[in-house]
Design brief:
The complex is a heterodimer. Chain A is an alpha+beta fold. Helix content of chain A is 46%, strand content 13%. Chain A folds into three domains: 104 residues, no CATH class; 115 residues, no CATH class; 168 residues, no CATH class. Chain B contains ten helices and 13 strands. Classes of the chains: A alpha+beta, B alpha/beta.
């Protein structure tokens, strides 16, 4: 007569082809059931940890009540009190050993993972070369290799009714604000969905406080980036099956500059930081300013340049605004196709883009060469940012600025800029002001985000992120 | 979203796209020549050509001209506009050339028109054509200078930086001088010699009429007295011992005494060239040169002053200075006796070293 629990598993997992139920008779009336999902379990581990030991039990023919956990050695063994827990462990690569009413879950997870890769979206010349992978345990390991402190605490939660995705919320107990962690856990607990497939899903849930195109949470694949965030008093969220960690809260200035800035001299980096900030505004404003100056205020353009513009525009049949929108649209298509296409087709796209748009369109009198320059400049300035979401937000505002410039000239740009400022200053990232450290102004974080100070002067943590542990560095003055 | 609507609402009512104009539909006018003959204005507009030339890839900044006549200046402009297929665009206007007759008879009307005309920015350079019609000057194109208005503008700007025969004065400043009762306005004159344009001093106005011309040297000296030049060459005018000094730092102090006016001028100078057999290592040599050049400069200033007094032209701002000092007007300034004291300090030894014994 088959065990009741095994019957239930058989019923729950019917039509599951990879379910293996192996009954092992240890006496005439006594049977141990070894159950696992073949696809997520390492068969050699099942063999080494369980089957060999269970066979040994069979040989001794013990009649006393057995303590399964002590006779089956495995690195991670859980005694389950409730049969409802079986599903979670079974799907997570554990092998369930059932003897009468005792249920034991032993970790025999298969190595369904790749090695530690190099960063692909946040590449740097200098700095660590490891990146997160899809395995949360490895990701935790990568982080803990950098941060060896008992104060690094983890809150775990499993989300997704079907995917049962493990979410780990990491923070420094002695630095991070408790309210922040509490808020994040509250938000995570609200999530009731059938599947969490990537940290991007969690990011969306945590960004619900704003209606904006701007990203308010950083997604990073670099463990050093997350370690730095933890040290500043931020919270890091790791999601199983996602090679991207989330950093909460994140501010506008954090999206502009890459982590590798920390490994270079402040004097040199500040120039690049100013350049990036300028590029953000240029990528938004250049087409709008061009349209406004050309159509409303040509007196501001030097005469010889104006004549060049005028001559080039002479053969173009469309108004400048139509030309600009058309070109932006075509370049967006080009960018999207470049991202989506396999690498081997990439060169074809480049040739098409460069030849058709750069040369033939001008020769055909479809667009003016100056418009090609304006649009190319707009896109080159947007390529500086690694975070795609900030590029997308810039695109949103670029269109708004362009339309306001087309209708109202420089005056429209001014008004749209006021809207931009009012919009960005009202945004929040987990309750913290998004335009920080500019508004509200904070000198300490200004030199962590927008600019960089000499490393010996970086002594404090920002008061917005921590309320108990401000000192980051002490200098031995002797 | 509410904010966005407020912004759209505000911008819609505060401004609009009424002045939207595509660049290639504008006729960019860079120079205007105004002649007045037979009680009729003859207007000539220099328009920058924005058509791509055949077989030429790059835009060529060549020009074409449109003429119009009229009893009034407005009518002449309207007649010109009838001949332009595009929207006339005056924001890039660089030069307005007035003929001698226009400057003499119709300056008030021309100035009045440009002040009232909103499409013209008052930063163009007004000039008077000397010994040639304004139209001739404006149409005097050459291979080197295809755009005459730009050439004249560059001539004035470059000269201001180097030889200072010109005065850098836009229409705004010129108008302020004309309407100020204690100032007399003056602008550059331009002349032509064998298809070459050159600056020919300044034209001075009094009571909205052309009063007189100052030639190149007089203009240069005026700039010295106004402290607006750093490069004035003074010669001793002797054929046997030629010496030239350069005045580079000049100041004029005007004071009023019971006897009349006292002009005290101070000049820093450097020795440019000499054929004297002077020992330039000695301070006395320079003092000797100073003593020689001070009367020469004084005579030149006196001659200029005499010319200005004869025409009652107050280019040295005598009335203005008096008013600033005493808060009273000085109407008969030209009747006062004028004393001139000039001090030249030759202080550049240059590369004259002690000989190593």
């Amino acid at each position: 007569m088959e065990n009741e629990i095994v019957k239930r598993i058989r019923k729950d997992f019917k039509k599951t082809v990879d379910l293996v139920i192996k009954p092992i008779k240890i006496s005439l009336l006594d049977t141990i059931y070894v159950i696992y999902l073949e696809s997520v379990t390492g068969s050699d581990k099942v063999n080494d940890y369980i089957l060999k030991n269970v066979s040994f039990l069979n040989f001794l023919k013990q009649k006393k009540k057995m303590d399964l956990a002590s006779v089956i050695p495995a690195p991670n063994t859980k005694v389950l009190k409730n049969a409802d827990e079986i599903e979670f462990y079974l799907t997570n690569g554990f092998t369930i050993v059932i003897h009468k009413k005792d249920i034991l879950a032993l970790e025999t997870r298969a190595e369904i993972q790749r090695g530690i890769p190099e960063p692909t979206t946040e590449q740097t010349i200098f700095g660590p070369k490891d990146a997160f992978t899809e395995n949360i345990q490895i990701n935790l390991g990568l982080l803990k290799r950098r941060v060896k402190s008992k104060d690094l605490k983890t809150e775990s939660i499993v989300l997704g009714r079907k995917t049962k995705t493990m979410i780990e919320v990491l923070y420094f107990e002695d630095i991070c604000e408790e309210d922040l962690v509490q808020n994040i856990m509250e938000e995570l607990n609200k999530i009731d969905v059938d599947g969490i497939l990537d940290s991007g899903n969690i990011m969306e849930y945590l960004s619900l406080e704003n209606k904006t195109h701007f990203p308010t949470i950083i997604k990073t694949e670099r463990p050093d980036n997350t370690a730095k965030a933890l040290l500043e008093g931020k919270v890091v969220i790791l999601v199983d099956t996602s090679p991207f960690a989330l950093i909460v809260p994140s501010f506008f200035s954090d999206f502009l500059n890459p982590i590798s800035d920390n490994y270079k001299k402040s004097n040199n980096i500040n120039f690049l930081k100013i350049l990036r900030l300028a590029c953000f505004f240029l990528t938004i404003l250049v087409p709008a300013i061009y349209i406004a100056l050309l159509n409303y205020n040509p007196e501001t353009i030097p005469t010889s340049l104006l004549i060049n513009f005028s001559t080039q525009r002479d053969s173009v049949p469309f108004p400048a605004i139509v030309e600009a929108v058309l070109m932006l649209f075509i370049y967006e298509i080009l960018r999207e196709s470049d991202v989506r296409f396999p690498n081997s087709y990439g060169s074809a796209i480049s040739i098409l883009g460069a030849l058709i748009l750069g040369e033939a369109a001008v020769t055909a009198g479809f667009v003016s060469p100056i418009m090609i320059i304006v649009i190319a400049f707009t896109f080159i300035t947007s390529l500086i940012f690694t975070e795609q979401e900030i590029v997308n937000a810039a695109r949103h505002f670029r269109i708004l600025f362009l339309l306001s410039a087309a209708f109202y000239g420089l005056y429209g740009i001014l008004f749209m800029f006021l809207y931009f400022l009012s919009h960005i200053t009202e945004l929040k990232s987990m309750g913290k002001p998004y335009f920080y450290p500019i508004a509200p102004f904070d000198k300490v974080y200004l030199f962590k985000g927008l600019f960089k100070r000499k490393i010996t002067l970086d002594t404090k943590r920002s008061k917005l992120l921590t309320n108990k542990n401000y000192t980051k560095q002490r200098r031995n003055l002797s | 979203m509410k904010k966005l609507w407020v912004i759209i609402f505000l911008t819609f009512f505060l401004t609009g796209c009424f002045d939207y104009q595509e660049l290639n539909t504008r006729a960019i006018i860079s120079g205007i020549a105004i002649d007045y003959e037979n009680e009729e204005y003859l207007l000539n507009l220099e328009i920058l050509n924005n058509k791509k030339s055949e077989g030429e890839e790059n835009a060529s900044a060549k020009t074409y001209y449109v003429e119009g006549t009229g009893q009034t200046i407005s009518e002449a402009f309207s007649n010109c506009h009838l001949k332009i297929a595009k929207e006339p665009y005056y924001a890039h206007l660089k030069v307005v050339i007035l003929s001698e007759s226009t400057a003499n008879e119709k300056l008030k009307e021309v100035v009045d028109y440009f002040i009232r005309e909103p499409s013209v920015r008052n930063i163009f350079l007004p000039v008077v054509s000397k010994n040639a019609a304004a139209k001739e000057i404006l149409e005097n194109t050459s291979k080197e200078n295809p755009v005459v208005s730009t050439a004249i503008q560059n001539l004035i700007l470059d000269n201001k930086a180097n030889d200072t025969v010109s005065v850098l004065k836009d229409f705004e400043v010129f108008t302020e001088e004309l309407i100020n009762p204690y100032l007399d306005g003056y602008i550059n004159t331009i002349s032509r010699e064998e298809d070459t344009l050159y600056l020919a001093g300044i034209a001075v106005f009094k009571n909205m009429k052309l009063a007189t011309y100052l030639d190149e040297e007089e203009t240069s000296l005026l700039n010295v007295l106004k402290g607006q030049t750093k490069n004035y060459v003074l010669n001793n005018n002797q054929s046997d011992n030629v010496t030239a000094i350069g005045l580079y730092d000049n100041s004029l102090n005007l004071s009023f005494t019971e006897k009349g006016l006292v002009f005290k001028t101070k000049h820093q100078a450097s020795l440019l060239e000499t054929t004297y057999s002077l020992d330039l290592r000695k301070k006395e040599s320079y003092e000797q040169l100073q003593r020689e050049f001070e009367p020469i400069l004084k005579d030149k200033i006196a001659a200029l002053l005499q010319k200005l007094v004869a025409k009652q032209i107050d280019l040295l701002e005598i009335q203005n200075t008096y008013y600033k000092k005493y808060k009273k007007t000085l109407d008969n300034w030209y009747t006062l006796k004028a004393d001139i004291e000039t001090t030249i300090t030759l202080n550049k030894n240059g590369l004259t070293f002690e000989v190593i014994q």
